[in-house]
């Protein structure tokens, strides 16, 4: 029997501004895969990671007790990946890199959404704080332990770069932190990795990373409206004056008079996503047909994000967030749950920091006689990896009870 020949990977057409399919390299050198590009390989490693599976039971805005149909970190991540691929395909970018970044962008989130992150950051304030983006990097470079040769997933340079810089540079040209890091400095996890492999923190990330970042924004807008309506935090009639959403509701009413609430909601979600994605693609095409960006390095050196909303749609995006903030994120029901969730995370940190032995044995390795900051970071790693359900059960184990998060 003739030996089976495995064909080369199918590489879709790319513009010159896209990242090349072969990476600059990995921290630990590995032979090329005969069946996958570097970024297809990264995507697969992320999907098979323990941290990715845990996203199934981590809250987006609501906790699992609210119902089975609300978004979790996992369903949100899948939605972001779909939008990121659509944008990347339309702009002749590397779809696999954009997808890998979308799939990895929330790996570092704590249980109980941003509430858990805020509580853990406060608990860690004396030890460098907690930042979910830095924690994502920590997971894929240190905390995942699946391979014989190295800790982490040993992802390609471009994937790590995009994971850290998808929202823009971390350093200014003079080496000082950008505004969002000026007060507290660059997160320790990022600086530690930067000392091993230079991620060029002063430049913008690739167009693929920018596509994943704006896909996250688009997914948030659409599904938070959907979840807010489903939970009864506000009604469709409350959105009639909201930029873009109100316009689309009027459009739906004219085209489909008498449409029931459920179908109207789904139609609104579909149109919000479509309108935002098409706007981003239009802006990206205008940038890339200008002739200014002839390589991925030109994109990194552009001095601004190139995958963006148009000014009019950026204003609408701000209006949608301006509606959701008081009507959803700060709704009385949500705030009550957030208070109890934050209390749980704080109590878990305090108890585990005081008594390291309450963690599983493998989490205590090397901590005997260790400095406080090392112990605190290990506790933060442990808590950040918890699902909502596990955190509730751990609180019940350690304190005999847990708040009712409803």
TrEMBL record:
UniProt xrefs under SUPFAM superfamilies: HD-domain/PDEase-like
Sequence ranges assigned to domain HD in this UniProt record: 73-221
CDD domains tied to this protein: HDc
Organism: Labrys okinawensis
The UniProt record lists the keyword Transmembrane helix: no
Protein name: Deoxyguanosinetriphosphate triphosphohydrolase-like protein
Cross-referenced Pfam families: HD, HD_assoc
UniProt cross-references to HAMAP family, sorted A to Z: dGTPase_type2 (MF_01212)
Keyword Heme annotated: no
Keyword annotations from UniProtKB, A to Z: Hydrolase
């Amino acid at each position: 029997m003739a030996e089976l020949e495995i064909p080369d990977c199918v590489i879709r057409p790319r513009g010159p501004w896209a990242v090349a399919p072969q990476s600059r390299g990995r921290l630990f050198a590995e032979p090329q895969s005969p069946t996958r590009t570097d970024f297809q390989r990264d995507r697969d490693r992320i999907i098979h990671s323990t941290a990715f599976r845990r996203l199934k039971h981590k809250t987006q805005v609501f906790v699992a007790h609210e119902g089975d149909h609300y978004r979790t970190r996992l369903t949100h991540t899948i939605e972001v990946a779909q939008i990121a691929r659509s944008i990347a395909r339309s702009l002749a970018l590397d779809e696999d890199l954009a997808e890998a970044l979308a799939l990895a962008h929330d790996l570092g989130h704590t249980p109980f959404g941003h509430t858990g992150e805020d509580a853990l950051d406060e608990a860690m304030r004396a030890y460098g704080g907690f930042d979910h983006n830095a924690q994502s990097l920590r997971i894929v470079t240190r905390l995942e332990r699946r391979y014989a040769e190295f800790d982490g997933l040993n992802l390609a340079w471009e994937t790590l770069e995009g994971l850290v810089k998808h929202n823009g540079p971390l350093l200014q040209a003079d080496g000082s932190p950008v505004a969002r890091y000026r007060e507290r400095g660059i997160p320790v996890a990022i600086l530690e990795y930067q000392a091993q492999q230079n991620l060029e923190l002063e430049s913008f990330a690739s167009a693929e990373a920018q596509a994943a970042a704006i896909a996250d924004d688009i997914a948030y807008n659409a599904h938070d409206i959907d979840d807010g309506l489903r939970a009864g935090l506000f009604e469709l009639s409350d959105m009639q004056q909201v930029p873009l959403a109100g316009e689309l509701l009027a459009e739906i009413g004219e085209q489909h008079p008498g449409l029931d609430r459920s179908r109207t909601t789904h139609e609104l979600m579909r149109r919000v996503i479509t309108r935002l994605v098409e706007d981003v693609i239009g802006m990206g095409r205008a940038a890339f047909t200008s002739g200014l960006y002839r390589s991925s390095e030109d994109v990194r050196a552009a001095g601004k994000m190139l995958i963006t909303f148009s000014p009019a749609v950026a204003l609408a995006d701000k209006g949608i967030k301006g509606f959701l903030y008081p009507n959803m994120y700060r709704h009385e029901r949500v705030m009550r749950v957030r208070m109890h969730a934050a209390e749980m995370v704080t109590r878990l940190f305090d108890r585990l920091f005081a008594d390291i032995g309450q963690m599983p044995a493998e989490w205590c390795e090397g901590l005997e006689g260790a400095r406080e900051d090392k112990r605190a970071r290990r506790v933060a790693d442990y808590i950040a990896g918890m699902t909502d359900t596990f955190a509730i059960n751990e609180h019940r184990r350690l304190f005999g009870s847990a708040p009712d998060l409803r």
